[in-house]
TrEMBL record:
Species name: Senna tora
Annotated Basic and acidic residues bias: 66-81
Bias (Basic residues): 35-45
Name of the protein this chain belongs to: Uncharacterized protein
Biased composition (Polar residues): 7-34, 53-62
Lineage, opening ranks: Eukaryota, Viridiplantae, Streptophyta, Embryophyta, Tracheophyta
Protein backbone atom coordinates (compact mmCIF):
# COMPACT_ATOMS: atom_id res chain seq x y z
CA UNK A 1 0.00 0.00 0.00
CA UNK A 2 1.39 3.39 -0.97
CA UNK A 3 0.31 6.85 0.30
CA UNK A 4 1.33 10.26 -0.98
CA UNK A 5 1.66 13.37 1.23
CA UNK A 6 2.75 16.90 0.31
CA UNK A 7 4.36 18.96 3.05
CA UNK A 8 3.42 22.63 3.32
CA UNK A 9 6.97 23.89 3.75
CA UNK A 10 8.81 22.48 0.74
CA UNK A 11 6.12 20.75 -1.37
CA UNK A 12 8.14 17.52 -1.73
CA UNK A 13 6.25 14.29 -2.09
CA UNK A 14 6.95 11.66 0.54
CA UNK A 15 5.89 8.11 -0.18
CA UNK A 16 4.82 5.94 2.72
CA UNK A 17 4.83 2.25 2.01
CA UNK A 18 3.91 -0.55 4.30
CA UNK A 19 7.09 -2.52 3.54
CA UNK A 20 10.10 -0.15 3.39
CA UNK A 21 11.15 3.36 2.38
CA UNK A 22 14.27 4.45 0.57
CA UNK A 23 16.83 6.58 2.49
CA UNK A 24 15.73 9.69 0.55
CA UNK A 25 12.11 9.10 1.45
CA UNK A 26 13.03 8.53 5.12
CA UNK A 27 15.03 11.76 5.16
CA UNK A 28 12.11 13.74 3.73
CA UNK A 29 9.71 12.23 6.24
CA UNK A 30 12.07 13.02 9.14
CA UNK A 31 12.71 16.62 8.00
CA UNK A 32 8.98 17.24 7.62
CA UNK A 33 8.35 15.92 11.12
CA UNK A 34 11.25 17.96 12.49
CA UNK A 35 9.93 21.14 10.86
CA UNK A 36 6.50 20.49 12.32
CA UNK A 37 8.01 19.98 15.82
CA UNK A 38 9.94 23.24 15.50
CA UNK A 39 6.84 25.17 14.44
CA UNK A 40 4.83 23.73 17.34
CA UNK A 41 7.62 24.52 19.83
CA UNK A 42 7.98 28.09 18.54
CA UNK A 43 4.23 28.68 18.78
CA UNK A 44 4.12 27.17 22.27
CA UNK A 45 7.05 29.30 23.48
CA UNK A 46 5.45 32.47 22.12
CA UNK A 47 2.00 31.93 23.59
CA UNK A 48 2.60 29.77 26.68
CA UNK A 49 5.94 30.73 28.25
CA UNK A 50 5.40 28.54 31.34
CA UNK A 51 4.17 25.49 29.41
CA UNK A 52 5.03 22.26 31.20
CA UNK A 53 6.11 23.94 34.44
CA UNK A 54 4.59 22.98 37.75
CA UNK A 55 3.61 25.61 40.28
CA UNK A 56 6.80 25.08 42.27
CA UNK A 57 8.97 25.55 39.15
CA UNK A 58 7.17 28.68 37.97
CA UNK A 59 7.31 30.31 41.41
CA UNK A 60 11.06 29.74 41.58
CA UNK A 61 11.64 31.71 38.40
CA UNK A 62 10.07 34.87 39.85
CA UNK A 63 11.56 34.80 43.35
CA UNK A 64 14.80 36.46 44.35
CA UNK A 65 16.50 39.78 43.79
CA UNK A 66 16.46 41.37 40.35
CA UNK A 67 19.56 41.30 38.21
CA UNK A 68 21.34 44.56 37.43
CA UNK A 69 19.97 44.75 33.88
CA UNK A 70 16.38 44.16 35.10
CA UNK A 71 16.20 47.19 37.43
CA UNK A 72 13.90 49.08 35.07
CA UNK A 73 11.36 46.25 35.26
CA UNK A 74 11.56 46.13 39.04
CA UNK A 75 11.81 49.78 40.10
CA UNK A 76 11.27 52.40 37.39
CA UNK A 77 10.72 55.13 40.01
CA UNK A 78 14.26 54.76 41.31
CA UNK A 79 15.67 55.22 37.81
CA UNK A 80 13.45 58.24 37.23
CA UNK A 81 14.67 59.75 40.50
CA UNK A 82 18.30 59.21 39.48
CA UNK A 83 17.64 60.82 36.11
CA UNK A 84 15.98 63.82 37.77
CA UNK A 85 18.94 64.22 40.15
CA UNK A 86 21.41 64.02 37.26
CA UNK A 87 19.31 66.54 35.34
CA UNK A 88 19.40 69.00 38.27
CA UNK A 89 23.17 68.59 38.63
CA UNK A 90 23.65 69.25 34.93
CA UNK A 91 21.43 72.34 35.11
CA UNK A 92 23.50 73.69 38.03
CA UNK A 93 26.73 73.09 36.10
CA UNK A 94 25.19 74.78 33.07
CA UNK A 95 24.31 77.88 35.12
CA UNK A 96 27.83 78.04 36.59
CA UNK A 97 29.35 77.78 33.12
CA UNK A 98 27.04 80.51 31.80
CA UNK A 99 28.08 82.84 34.63
CA UNK A 100 31.74 82.12 33.95
CA UNK A 101 31.15 82.72 30.23
CA UNK A 102 29.57 86.12 30.95
CA UNK A 103 32.52 87.12 33.15
CA UNK A 104 34.97 86.13 30.42
CA UNK A 105 32.99 88.11 27.84
CA UNK A 106 33.09 91.20 30.07
CA UNK A 107 36.85 90.79 30.54
CA UNK A 108 37.23 90.35 26.79
CA UNK A 109 35.28 93.53 26.11
CA UNK A 110 37.41 95.38 28.68
CA UNK A 111 40.59 94.11 27.06
CA UNK A 112 39.30 95.07 23.62
CA UNK A 113 38.63 98.59 24.86
CA UNK A 114 42.06 98.77 26.47
CA UNK A 115 43.66 97.36 23.32
CA UNK A 116 41.92 99.98 21.20
CA UNK A 117 43.04 102.72 23.60
CA UNK A 118 46.64 101.50 23.36
CA UNK A 119 46.45 101.41 19.56
CA UNK A 120 45.15 104.97 19.52
CA UNK A 121 47.97 106.06 21.83
CA UNK A 122 50.56 104.35 19.62
CA UNK A 123 49.26 106.13 16.52
CA UNK A 124 49.35 109.48 18.37
CA UNK A 125 52.95 108.80 19.43
CA UNK A 126 53.91 107.83 15.87
CA UNK A 127 52.37 111.06 14.54
CA UNK A 128 54.20 113.05 17.20
CA UNK A 129 57.44 111.28 16.25
CA UNK A 130 56.90 112.16 12.57
CA UNK A 131 56.22 115.79 13.50
CA UNK A 132 59.40 115.88 15.60
CA UNK A 133 61.41 114.36 12.74
CA UNK A 134 60.11 117.05 10.39
CA UNK A 135 60.94 119.77 12.91
CA UNK A 136 64.41 118.28 13.32
CA UNK A 137 64.96 118.23 9.55
CA UNK A 138 63.82 121.83 9.21
CA UNK A 139 66.11 122.83 12.08
CA UNK A 140 69.02 120.99 10.43
CA UNK A 141 68.32 122.83 7.16
CA UNK A 142 68.22 126.13 8.99
CA UNK A 143 71.59 125.40 10.60
CA UNK A 144 73.05 124.34 7.28
CA UNK A 145 71.93 127.60 5.67
CA UNK A 146 73.65 129.68 8.31
Amino acid sequence: MTMVMASASNQKMAFYSSTSNSPVQRRNIQSNASNKRKRIKKHRDQHWPNFGMTKSNSSKTFKGTPRAEDTKKWDPKRDDQKLKENNLELKEKNLELREENLQLKEENLGLRGEGQRLKDEITRMERRELELCKENETYCFQLAEK
